[in-house]
TrEMBL record:
CDD domains on file: DHQS
Pathway membership: Metabolic intermediate biosynthesis; chorismate biosynthesis; chorismate from D-erythrose 4-phosphate and phosphoenolpyruvate: step 2/7
Name of the protein in its database record: 3-dehydroquinate synthase
Organism: Roseateles oligotrophus
Entry keyword Transport: no
Source species, domain of life: Bacteria
Entry cofactors: Co(2+); Zn(2+); NAD(+)
Cofactor note: Binds 1 divalent metal cation per subunit. Can use either Co(2+) or Zn(2+).
Amino acid sequence: MTASAQAPNTQLPASSANLDTSHKVSIALDQRGYDILIGPGLLDEPATWLGLPKAQVAVIVTNETVAPLYLERLSHQLRAHYTRVEAVVLPDGEAYKDWASLNKIFDHLLAQACDRKTVLFALGGGVIGDMTGFAASVYMRGVPFVQVPTTLLAQVDSSVGGKTAINHPLGKNMIGAFYQPERVVADLDGLDSLPPRELSAGLAEVIKYGPIADAEFLAWIEDHLDALLARDKAAMAYAVKRCCEIKAWVVGQDEREQGLRAILNFGHTFGHAIETGLGYGEWLHGEAVGCGMVMASDLSVRLGLMPAEFLPRMHRLIERAGLPVLGPALGIERYLELMRVDKKAESGEIRFVLIEGLGRATMRAAPDPLVAEVIQSHCR
Ligand SMILES: NC(=O)c1ccc[n+]([C@@H]2O[C@H](COP(=O)([O-])OP(=O)(O)OC[C@H]3O[C@@H](n4cnc5c(N)ncnc54)[C@H](O)[C@@H]3O)[C@@H](O)[C@H]2O)c1
Ligand SMILES: O=C(O)C(=O)C[C@@H](O)[C@H](O)[C@H](O)COP(=O)(O)O
Ligand SMILES: [Zn+2]
């Protein structure tokens, strides 16, 4: 099966970079569409929080790193709308994206007698967003939740589209649900406190959107990478907006990944193998995806889908973004074993998202010996 980005009658809406720093992107999903608010100062702006579901109780889920930075400011805004504003503060890290953390959320909700109108707020990066969304999807069979992403990766990708999950020791994001938020609030000022390594991890997912859907955006990223690394507000605002536009366009057509949505997994088949193979947390998700995109670009070239120049182009961009381009030495057999657990695999056959023309992705199986050559070429 192929998942072409060029679905009939559904052209990706055009976008143009300008100096604006505030944007609104809407995601269209039958009755369940929502807005993605992007801009500086949104957290402290009372208008940001108008029109959310009415309830007595709001519960903010966050972690030990983000809480001291932003919890009180969000709580202050929410007290204007909810009688009780509570917080669950989880340990920080990908290693804690697990059942134990999920249970801590449920323990709090039940101990505080939170009813089915309770609104959950995910304040943090993708780990908090994925876990809070999953908790919201199953608590009392579903309560509303709002994404307040504070990392670049979460603002451009994980907060949008409704994939929620926890990890399993045998596979990344293996336990989860599709469940959409009520709203996404991406305050660009939050990115000022992000460590450089996390900024680079977010840039991996930014880069991803170019080759899979928008060749012009890829060229824009190449031209503006230094501005993005310097956290220039206008460049950052445009990058977040364009990524959200592309993701909204994809998810609006294929919410549950029956085909097209798989293009968002470019670099992830190799990347998830790295994350799971090392045990979660040694490599950041974005780092694994960056390296995985180098491997998937090479495979695209080796299969004759892309000209040879594509690999050095991607390699250079990913390296310039501060991301690793050589994978860990897990061993070829171990890589293959891990990739067979990927959600896109069918009957044990690994399927890769590959590029078949700039801005167009496809999903294909590939012969094991060719995949082995790719791994051999891009591992320590
Ligand atoms: N649901 C999806 O569609 C989707 C998409 C992409 C990634 N993901 C998932 O997202 C996760 C990765 O997300 P991530 O990269 O945001 O990692 P993360 O959530 O672990 O956050 C990265 C680090 O930054 C810290 N942090 C967060 N905001 C901060 C801020 N403003 N200032 C300073 N520090 C801050 C966090 O505490 C953490 O230490 C992975 O689990 C991945 O599987 C999901
Ligand atoms: O939203 C999607 O669809 C994606 O694939 C986005 C990815 O960046 C993200 O890492 C996602 O969680 C991976 O999905 P999975 O289904 O492979 O776990
Ligand atoms: Zn990802």
